[in-house]
Amino acid sequence: MDGPQDEFAIRVRDLVVGFGRQTVLDHLSLDVRRGEILGLVGASGGGKSVLMRTIIGLIPRRGGTIEVMGQSAGGDGRGAAMAWGILFQQGALFSSLTVRQNVQFPLRENLVLSQELMDEIAIAKLEMVGLRAEDADKYPAELSGGMTKRVALARALALDPPILFLDEPTSGLDPIAAGEFDVLIKTLQRTLELTVFMVTHDLASLTTVCDRVAALADGKIVAIGPMRQLLQSEHPWVRAYFHGKRSQMLQHEMR
Amino acid sequence: MNHEPLLLATPSGDELKLRPEGPWTAANVVMLETLSRSVVADVDRSRAVTLDMSGVSALDTLGAWVLEKLSRRATSSGRSAEFVGVADHFSGLLDEVRQVNRHTPAPAAAPNPVLARLGDLGKSTVGAREDITIFLQMLGALFMAVIGVLRRPRSLRLTSLVYQLYRIGWQAIPIVALITFLIGAIIAQQGFFHFRRFGAESYTVDMVGILVLRELGVLIVAIMVAGRSGSAYTAELGSMKMREEIDALSTMGLDPVDVLILPRVAALVIALPILTFIGSIAALYGGGLVAQFYGDMGPAIYIARLHEAISVTHFQVGILKAPFMALVIGIVACSEGLRVKGSAESLGRQTTTSVVKSIFLVIVLDGLFAVFFASIGM
Lengths: 255, 378
Hints:
Shape of chain B: elongated
Radius of gyration of chain A: 18 Å
Number of helices of chain A: 10
Number of strands of chain A: 10
Number of helices of chain B: 12
Order of helices and strands of chain B: EEHEEHEHHHHHHHHHH
Structural class of chain A: alpha/beta
Largest sheet of chain A: 6 strands, mixed
Shape of chain A: globular
Distance between the termini of chain B: 93 Å
Strand content of chain A: 25-35%
Strand order of the largest sheet of chain A: 6-7-8-3-9-10
Helix content of chain B: over 70%
Helix content of chain A: 25-40%
Oligomer: heterodimer
Number of strands of chain B: 5
C-alpha cells in the first residue's frame, strides 16, 4: 500500500494563483509527505493562507496541479470533508449550534448513523482534544479562545480525515495554552496518523512540533526542510525571518 | 484484501471470540453499527470476550469506539474482555479511545413546563422594564450630547451627519416616492370604486387628501425608514460592537453617543420630515393620476377639490409627527445595536428586534398623537 506514489499526501505543482493583476503564488511547487507535520511560514499577506485555501479549494487557481492523497483535487468539493479537516484561524464554529452539535455536524451531513453513536463519538472527540463532556452543551460564544480552538479541532477531526489543515492554530493563545495545543496536535497526529499542514508564525511551534518547515517568499517556496536546515538557509528573507531578534532565543535553545 | 468490514463471532462455552476484519472506519458506519448490534446478544451471554484485532485493515476513532463499546458492555457486568493481536499502529488510537466517555455528566433536570412558562413571563416583564430604562438612558444621553453640541457647535460631527443624511435621506427618496405613489393611487381607486355607488365620488379627493397628509404619508414613510435605515443602524453598530470598535472609541476618550449615535439620530430627525413631505406629494400625485384615468376627474378639478378639502393644519399634523417618530426609530435602532453580543446570531436577533420594536412604537406614537391632536382640535 505504501508504494512510492503514496509517499506524498499533498503534491502541488506549478501552482499559479492571483487576484486581478496581482499574482500571489507564482509557479509554486510543494510536497507534503504522509504522516508528517509540515509548517508553512511566510510574510503576512505573502500568500500562506492563499496557498492553504487554494489546496482546499476555496480559491480558484490559474494554473498548476494539486494532488491530494493521489487524487487530483479541484472538483466541486463534494466528499472533501472525508479527505481533510480544517481548523480555521478564528475557529469558524457555527454560532447557532452547541459544541456537541458543531462536532456532530460533519458526521450528520456525511454519514448515516444513530443519534446514540453520534453523541458518543462527539463526546469521544471532545475528550480527545482535552475538553470535558460538560462543555458539550455550551454555545461557541461562551468559550474561551483556547477552548474554541479545541472544539474547532474536534470538529475538524470528526470524520477522522487523513489530512489536517491548521491556519495559525496557536495565534491568540497564551504561551501555556499554545504549548498545550502544540502537544495536543503532536499527540493526535501520532495516534490518528495524520498528515498535518500548518500555517503558523509561532516559532516555538515550528521548533517543537513540525517535522519540516517550508518558507514561502515572493510567491514560491524558497526553502524547505527540517528546522535546523532552514536556519542554515542563505535566502535573505529566510535569514531575516529566523535570525531576527525574536528568533535568537529559540535558536539558542536549538543548539 | 477485503473492502467490507466483517465481525466473526465464535462462541466456545462461556467464552466468546470476536474477530473484526476489514476496514473499521467512519465510511462504513452503517455496517459497523449493524455488525455490533448483531453480536450484542452473544456478548451478553458469555463470560469472557476476546477481541482479536489482527484482521483489521484500517481503524479510525469511530470504528475503535464501536469495538470499545462492545468490550465495555462485557466488562460493565463484571465479566472480562480483552483486545488481542492489536497492530502497533492501532494501539495508540485504541488506548486513547479506552480513556474516553468514562464519565457521563448528570443530565440537566427537565424543568416543569408550567414553571418554565411562568419563568418566561416573569423574565419578559423584567425585560420590558429594562427596555424602557435603556430607551430613557439613550434619550438622556442624546439630550446631553445635543447640549454639548449647542455649547460647542464645532464638536458636531458634520461630515458624518451629512453622510448619514445622504444615505438615509437622499438614497431613500426613489423607493419612498414609489411606495407612497402606489399607496395614494390605491386609496384613490378604492375611494372612487366604493363612493361611486352612492354618488359621492367627489369626496374621494377629501379622503385621499386628509388620509395621506394626516396619517398615511408619515406612517408609511416611518415604517419604511425603520425597515430600511433602522435595521442598517442596528447592524452597523452591532458589528462595530462585536469587533470592539466601540470599546476602542471609548478608550480614546470619545463618547460613542457623540461620535456614532448623535449624527445618525440627527440625520433621521432631519430626513424623516423631508421624506414625509416627498412621500405625501407622491401619494397625492398618485391619487391625481387615478382620478384622471379611473375617476374621470381632470387635474384642474382634482386640485380645486384638494384645495377646498385640505388646509395647512392637516399638513402640519402629519409633518409634526415625523421628527418624533424619527427619534423613536433612531433610539431603538442604536440601543439595540449596542446590545449585540459576540455572536452572529445575536446580531441577527437584535436587528429583527430593532425593526419590530420601532415599527410597533411608531404606530403606538401615532395613536397617541391622534388623541393629542383631537383634544387640541387640530
